[in-house]
Input
Amino acid sequence: SHSINLAVIPGDGIGQEVVAEGLKVLSAVLPQDVKLETEEYDFGAKRYHATGETLTDADLDSLKKHDAILLGAIGDPSVPSGVLERGFLLKLRFAFDHHVNLRPSKLLPGVATPLAGQPEIDFVVVREGTEGPYTGNGGTIRKGTPHEVATEVSVNTAFGVERVVRDAFARAQARPRKKLTLVHKNNVLTFAGHLWTNIFTKVAGEFPEVTTDYLHVDAATIFLVTDPARFDVIVTDNLFGDIITDLAAAVSGGIGVAASGNINPSGEFPSMFEPVHGSAPDIAGQGKADPTATVLSVALLLRHLGYETEAVRVEEAVSADLTERGTAVRTTAEVGDALAARVAS
Amino acid sequence: SHSINLAVIPGDGIGQEVVAEGLKVLSAVLPQDVKLETEEYDFGAKRYHATGETLTDADLDSLKKHDAILLGAIGDPSVPSGVLERGFLLKLRFAFDHHVNLRPSKLLPGVATPLAGQPEIDFVVVREGTEGPYTGNGGTIRKGTPHEVATEVSVNTAFGVERVVRDAFARAQARPRKKLTLVHKNNVLTFAGHLWTNIFTKVAGEFPEVTTDYLHVDAATIFLVTDPARFDVIVTDNLFGDIITDLAAAVSGGIGVAASGNINPSGEFPSMFEPVHGSAPDIAGQGKADPTATVLSVALLLRHLGYETEAVRVEEAVSADLTERGTAVRTTAEVGDALAARVAS
Ligand SMILES: CC(C)[C@H](C(=O)O)[C@@H](O)C(=O)O
Ligand SMILES: CC(C)[C@H](C(=O)O)[C@@H](O)C(=O)O
Output
């Protein structure tokens, strides 16, 4: 395709600022003959306060027509916890069947990590995105009374687990180390645990070159700080993936550089790319936010749309910039400009 | 009471070795006039293979008569995942209503941590022990087929949440910093999240001196590696507690020194004390296991039974030993002997 029709959702807080830089780099890296069309959407706290809407059916119809979606951040303290998360972010992941939630972690030379001894970190987490404890199943009885009971139901299907496990095996197969770790808690969550473990074992048979192992999620958090180099590709459920990818981001340079893709591999719906960080209202509008995570999300977007050369160019620009960054404080736009200049040259 | 009637469950792997050292230190620290009676139980993999039993009603009746339980570790690769966990460890926590799962994390001077810059770490996690995703509710349909659906149900009651939240507030109130952090995921698990958050807010009103805050579990893992000093007391659900206490142990000296108590505060049933680590079959029987976590669990046991002076003596002995440990390799028994000698003097 010689055009990209992109939905842009700046969202709340620093979302506006970082998305502007992401687009700057995207424009700079694309070949002259690729036409970039963008349409901006006003989802987030402001629209919610004005209209009570988070994401309507008409919104979904409109978003569906794009090739991909770039999102900044959604969330604001003025909105009760859960409203935008369930009403926008998760609604979109479910509506567009974003079952592969891709979160790479790579510690680049010169980047600060809270871990001693600058360990080697280069792995990717494939987090299931449409099942598990995120389905919103469950409920409450006798709310607000001393006899309240609240349940959360984790729903796991053979269909849903197998497709994400298969995706993770294919990704492991394509990497030099070819190693895949299943992370779950199959000794306690035995129903879901057996399903995940059995499917993992079955699909492993089709990928004889991939080395596999298994870790309980609690043990995985230990290894993420004591021996992150042991990981190559991790596949895990939605909630465990949420938890370990924040930890993974923290040890590999912080959420300022952590990118993610909410991917629908079949292409039936557009995939969405976003930094792992939130809207950080405390520093919004001050030009202090680091747009690097958004720019790396743009690289994932490019790769997903088939622009592999351009994706690599963006990633190399970020690597070079991070390595040379030093301690000089730069504004959001200065980082974006520097990255755009690198990819253009 | 001038006697302690202790149930001892060495269990599997290194459990045998570390419990022996725990008992050595316990005997050494107790005043002459306190009679220590112990009864050993053979739970674990060996008994399971011989009899198919993990924990019978008769076992529970017998255990019930003790003042407290000291456990080494349960688990062996020869037993399918989940059998001993659900059939012994969790069965006991549920049967004896061990709803306060207490896990202190303190980084002692000189102890190695994977974090750069030797941060200050001194907090305690109060993990709910009888509810949440650990109830074993849920199930499977169409097992083994492409249409399998497996569910896990997290059950949360006002009764269960309030008692553990209240316990955590009382513990925070008794500490110098008086700070309590609720860790949950109330933006996604909104049913359980609202219950936890509402009860936390309500009980906070009764403890005006305690400073409170809230963190999503994913953000909590970030702070555990970037700013662990921010934590004083954490209260959280069963599964989040499982995950963050392993991470907490990893950053504060490793699971070799992480102690825990499964506490029934009313005293209706005996409480159980155990190291956080597992049975480590790879190093079992070689005198290589570090008994420190078990010895620190003995300190929690002493405190629970009202022997505060003795508990502090054990903790101080461990601190002194750890500080002086250096790089010399000692056997399990040598560490136990050194600690017993310190507490006796
Ligand atoms: C904001 C929240 C709904 C979201 C999640 O839990 O998935 C976030 O933490 C993430 O990791 O993308
Ligand atoms: C062994 C397992 C059942 C247990 C748990 O998940 O609670 C362990 O990880 C722990 O933290 O005590």
